[in-house]
Structures are given as C-alpha cells and as structure tokens.
Amino acid sequence: MAVIGGLSALIGVPGVILGLWYQDRSTKSGEDSVKIAREAEDREKGEAEEDKKKQAGPPIASVAGAAGFYGSRFAFPDRTTDLGEGKGAVYGSEPYAKWFTKNRAAPVGVTATRVTLSPLHEGTVVIQNMRISGLKCQPTRHTGTAVVPPPIGDGGEEVQPTEIAFDLTEPVPRPRHMEGRVVSDPAAKAEVWRTKGNAFSKGIYLDGGKQADARSFDLYFFTGKNDCEFGVEVNVTSGTSDGWYPVKLAAGNRMKVVGQAQHYESVVLPRKTDVTDPVQNELRGPGNPFQPLKLEKGPF
To answer: What global pTM score does this model have?
Structure first.
C-alpha cells in the first residue's frame, strides 16, 4: 500500500506543477491585460490633450508646395560675363540650382506657389478670404542678367487646385480668380494673362476631425516693374472665432518677385542641343528676351 500511495503522490506531482503553471500564466495574462488597458488609457488621454491643444490653437494648417506653373523668366541683379557651372548645367539639376542661388536669381514679372490648407479644429472651418501681408516694393534692381531656361514637358495633374491671382501693383492687392495665360495673341505683342472676379465671393468649407478635408491653392503674383517681397495670410472662421493666419510659402514665410526691366546687361539663353553636345546655355550681350507681361482683369 505504501508503494501504491507513493506512486499516487508521484503521479500527483505533475498535476500540481501543471496547476501552478496555469495559475502563473493566468496571473501574467491578467497583468498584461492591465498593462494594455493602462497603455490604451494613457494613449486616449494623450490624444485628448493633443485635441485640446489643437482646439486652442490656429484653426488651420498650411503646407507649401510647387505650383503647376513653369516659370520661363528669371533675372540676376548683376551682369554675367562667365557662365561657369551654368554653361553646361541641365535645367532642374542641382548644379543649375546652385548657379541660380549663387547669382541671386529671382522670377521676373510673375511667379506662383502652391498652398494646401487643412483644418485643425473639430467641425467645419470656413476659408473666407486671402490677402497679401507686409508688402514691400521698389523699382527693379534686377537688371544685370536675363535668363531664359529651356522648355520642359508638362505631365499634367489629375487634381486641379483652386487658382488665385494677386496684382501687386494695386494699392491693396485682392484675390482674383485666375483664368490663365493666353496661348496665342500675336497682336498684343505681350504675354497676356487674364483674371476675373473675387476668388472668395463664396466661402470654402472644410470639415475637420480625424479625417480632415484639405484644399490646395495655386497662388499667382504679378509685380509690374517693381521688385516686391511679401507674405500671404488667410482669413478663417472656426466656430465663433474669426481671424487672419499666415500661410507657409514655397520660399518660407515670404516670397520675392522682381520687376520687368526695359534692358539687361547680359542675356543667357538655352541652346538646342543633341546628345553629342553637352552645352546647355549660352551667354549673349545686352538685350531683353522677354515680352512685356500684360494682366487683363475683369470686374472684381
């Protein structure tokens, strides 16, 4: 009997061990569940705090981008006598960009940038208006070198942004609907652009929340004969609050467009090249390769 009892005790040991293992696993599982629950609670608290901060801050976020616009008019303030790295640099390449930066290049007469706006507040926000801020203009000093980059292809875009134009020669530039550039108008002897009406005759409604709406705007700026620096602000209504907020631009918080000059001390033009000719640009003497810009505006 003693042998049988001892055998029973031995047989019972694995059951005890198995029971202890299940108990330990159950305890660990419970602790993991508590940990997961605490992490979820902390995450919810963090999200609630973040939402509270967003509600207390600006109602809109802005992101800068490149507009669907190919600029073909640029100028340096100084005369160019040697193209250096610009002679063989391909348009759009890093060497070409460095050459432009080194010579303080700026767009002439017209430029554009893209701004994408999305709500930070819950509910619906309304974009009511846009305006130019901190506008500073003076007669153009970019008369040294006119630069015409080579043409590039246009792949087109599936989603078309809202296009808005500002005439910086107006005492108070206003946001107008951009109609675009006239493809062919030989009689005008000018590069003609057209605008019409108030771009914000109706507010633009965007829904906030976890899956907030977004709207992109291509903003065009026309400067006449002056060099102008400026920022852009957007008027937004959210709930019971209404205010003006700065937007981010492609060049930072401010942009620069230089005026059209009558004459340039030197001119850089693209060359028609084949695969065996690495030269991209050539330097010429004084002149003006640009047609004058003409902006036709309909009633506001």
So the answer is: 0.79
